[in-house]
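Feature request, filed as a ticket because there's no other form

It would be nice if the structure record came with a short human-readable summary line next to the tokens. Right now we just get the raw output. Example of a typical job, pasted below so the devs can see what we mean:
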Amino acid sequence: MLTVIATISSNNIDADVVLTALENLQKYSRQEVGCLRYELSVKSDDDQTTYLVSEQWASEEHFEAHKNEPHFKAFGTQIKGLVTSSHIDVYKSIG
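Raw output as currently delivered:
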């Protein structure tokens, strides 16, 4: 099993567009085979909004397949130029 933690930040002026794209990604990702959990959280300050995406996938193969899904690729197109920073960590479950 894999746990994926992604953080994505944008300027507040772009926050609604990024949030809509993330909500669509969450909706369709939850329907994928091998998706065990897909949660979206948000925090904002005066200048930027940061999203935390927490995912669990049954296997590395499921996660790799996820990255090739049309909704994942569409997400990348939708947020292009709107993200000020992003980081993805992938953890393998122990035991």
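Something like this underneath would help us a lot:
The mean pLDDT is 97.
The first strand starts at residue 2 and ends at 11.
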